[in-house]
Amino acid sequence: MRLDLEGRVVAITGAASGIGRACAQAFAAEGARLALLDRDTEGLERLRDELAAASADVYAVNCDVTAEGSVGAAVESVVEHFGSISHLVVSAGISGPFGRDIAATSLAEWKEVFAVNVTGSFLAVRSVLPWLRLADEATIVFIASDSAMVAAPGMVPYCASKGALVQFGKALAVDLAADRIRVNSVCPSIVDTPMSRSDLGVAEDGFSALDFPVQSPHEVAQHVLYLSSVRSSPVNGVALLSDFGYAARSSFPA
What we know:
The protein is an alpha/beta fold. The chain is 41% helix and 14% strand. It has seven helices and seven strands; from the N terminus they run E-H-E-H-E-H-E-H-E-H-E-H-H-E. Helix 1 packs across helix 7 (217-228), helix 3 runs parallel beside helix 4 (107-132) and helix 4 packs parallel to helix 5. The protein is globular and about 55 Å long. The termini are far apart.
């Protein structure tokens, strides 16, 4: 399938690892020009060098998505380098307190989760929006989670933040429809990333020994590619649930 992403400028937050890194690799394979944003300078530089060695047109800039000035300066730097931005992928995120009763969660921890997962998304969109409005076939894709729809014990801040992110995407899709900017979210279940391995205490050999399905960051990246491409032009305001059909199952004991 031709995605027609060659030469398009794609800005990716949280690009240094996990799903963001896989998205960068996937867009590079399609010939897109890449603006990589992350506060992990070492990880960002490794990815930049890897993609540049494969002849990708890539530009990396340090960015803390929770800091308004940092986001604004990063986007300004990207535009100075590439001259435009046509697509935004918001992948920066944290899990926050994991496996903990809400009564044991501090206000500071709650605020940190929302600062990265929700406010960081708002700041990225607001900074990039003037350039998306100048682009043809512009898109925004949020990396949300199935935790926006279902919940596991001990994950209240994370679930609440991802639910807010999905609704943010839907509201934006309505508000930006007149600008022909599409906004969608991808909502995967457990993905084999450094964050999920840390949260679940999984050893270096990965999730293979466990009895539940886990998807790879590259599988998630394929959804992002499609939602960013002209092939999905009728799709707007959607939260794409990628969970192996778990949420579709009835609790009926049959």
